[in-house]
Please model this.
Amino acid sequence: MFIFWKFILYFSGFCMIYTIAINLFYNGQMLVSVFDLFSYLRKMKSSDYKRYIGSKNMIPISIIVPAYNEEKTIVDNIKSLLALDYYEYEIIVVNDGSKDSTRDRIIEEFGLTLVNQPVKKSLQTKDIRGIYRSPQFERIILVDKENGGKADALNAGINVSSYPIFASIDADSILENEALIKLTMIFVEHPETVAVGGIVRLANGSIIKDGKLVDMRIPKSRIASFQIVEYLRAFLTGRTSLSRLNSILIISGAFGAFNKSAVIEVGGYKANTIGEDMDIIIKLHEKMKREKRKYKIKFLADPICWTQAPESLNDLRVQRRRWQIGLFDNLLAYRGMLFRKKYGAVGMLTLPYYWLFELIGPVVEFLGYIFIPMAYLFGLLDFHNFLIYFIVAFLLGTSLSMGSILLEQISFRKYTSFKDIMRLVLFALLENLGYRQLTILFRIEGILKFRKGRHSWGSIKRKQFVPTESK
Amino acid sequence: MTNTAMLLLWISLGLSVVFFLAIVGTWIYSYYFKRTTEKTNEALEEMLGAVFALEGHEQNIVISRKLLGYVRNSWLRRELLMKALVEFAGRLPAEKQERVNQIVEETEISAYLARLLSSNSSSNHSIACRYIGDLRVSSLREEMLKLKDSRNNDVLYNMLLALAKLGDVEGLSAILSANSSHINLSFRAVVEVVTAFKGSMEELIGQTIDHCDDYMKGILIKAAADEGHSGLTPIYVKYLSSDNKNLRIACIRAIAETKDTGNESHLIGMLEDSEWEVRAAAAKGLEQIGTDKSIPSLGEAVKDKEWWVRQNAASSLVALPGGRKYAESIIKGEDRFASEAIVGVLEMSS
Model:
């Protein structure tokens, strides 16, 4: 019994220190992000990206949109891509054996017909059934292929693409007009760049017309509102700070641009996995570091891709479970890079951080919710310390979210209404009182179901973007 | 434990309160900032409108003094004035450009830009170079050229662009002729700079090309090709025999851009090059300047061992007058790869 009590006491202490350490680490990340964002904003003052909008010297780019059962959003998505400010680009929509009418909706809307376009097979993929094009919409190429998963669809898109840079965009996302040019400018300014990611922000509740976001609002759905705060925190602090150290491990599959030859060199996206966006980045780091090549993998906080967050608990659960499985899968696959000096900040800092805080974090936090109250109930922890611990954990978590909202306000100011900002602050406060604990459970479920679920995406209900003003 | 816990409590509470107050403060600041910016822009628009409408010297001096008084003690007003001037300069006819330069001097913008140039901040240097180019402040050329050894990409890019906008052959040529490894910009960025050059492209290239390395030669040729400078054809032809394949490719593209069928034979010869990228570029270039003389050579190139050469050759062959018939005869031939390339192109073009 004594050993059990000792265990409870020490484990509770460990959980308390861990929770505070993780929050202090995140607050430290925020500090790094502040420097990075300010230097980015200063740089944008002298940036010449607008000059390249109509310039034929801009790098031509292939936009690859993998689509599986996306009949509700795919046409809006293509329309938004057609409206981009960019001189030369092609839109390759890869219909990955959808069971709904994704393919037919695109063919019908844009008047595409089957063509016999030759394809150079740089990467192995499932069979392509046909390629569709239209003289009226020369930029659009529809690739209809056997189902092989998102990674396989991206690889097929790479094979069909003609340009040296490609961007991967999710079919349920919408890009801001200047997002692509801002993103790809980094390839012009820094030719050693192999990948760059833009920020993914949530459009739930906002108004979108003809593929353009015209009014930004906070959604009525509470689950989506919590996620707005979460996304701001993840992108504006987490990714910005890691990017500063050239050790970012994920470029969101929803919006990223890549040097095509570098991706082909590492064998393309890993098929039959659900964390392909993380896999490709770690693979690129691994190869570049191993071969001691000069390279950059960047995250930019300004080029915006709007997407929709799940609005039901079940969809949120599927999403978080999937993310955790993808993370676990990749960390295991690249465990050989851990604490290896030759991999620089990736091996010595980022990978350990992901293992310690992102993968194991939910488990420790969950156990903390059990053991710390137990320690108090068994009289091993006095009420004073017990209470202070919870308040500190709550406040540190809240300060991180509020810091991210502040960063958004200082830098990009997408939310202009005071009411909306106060609502975000409110959700930043409430987030730690239930929502966070729920997502922890979903993430633990992901770890538990790792073996079974590592090859299955699960499905999330898609909604059309809100096309007209709603009161 | 308790003392540490209390310290953490105060830190976390302090952080949360500070962030909350900062959010509210930022919103209020940005609200007033937006309103002030709008008002200032309106006032500047009015004053600049008057400046460019007036012809009399004395009236000009009065309004310039008024402008100076308005912007002298406010960084925001000065920045907005610079932005407004750039916009005005873009809309004005060339003969009024002189007046823009006068305003830049009279409102002490040039003195401000000189201060930015002499500061220690790379971002200030970039901004200064940007405005020097946009407002054509040639008086700061010497100050700006002191930054030519900067290792900062933004500074270097903005300085090169400013020199191009000033039409400064000497300055631009001196930097481009130096070792190109000092310029860590993509070739597209440098091409864009050269394309922005406001002077005689022939003079710039003539003065630079023999003194720079192959990488920069390729860039200069590409930039000239985009503008279709046929007077530079002898230079393009000269470098077709370079050892550097990228330079050969740049020359092929430049020759194709001249749209002069008299240069066809140069490209036909390049279909025999040892590098497939060069052969592919030549095959593509013949689509623009090829005649029936190119058809047999393109017919051979369709059988090339490299996919891109076959595709480009097939595409050019089908596009040339009389080429489609020749291409159809290849479909019936024994070379399966050549046949596939032709069929693909024919289907795409039908």
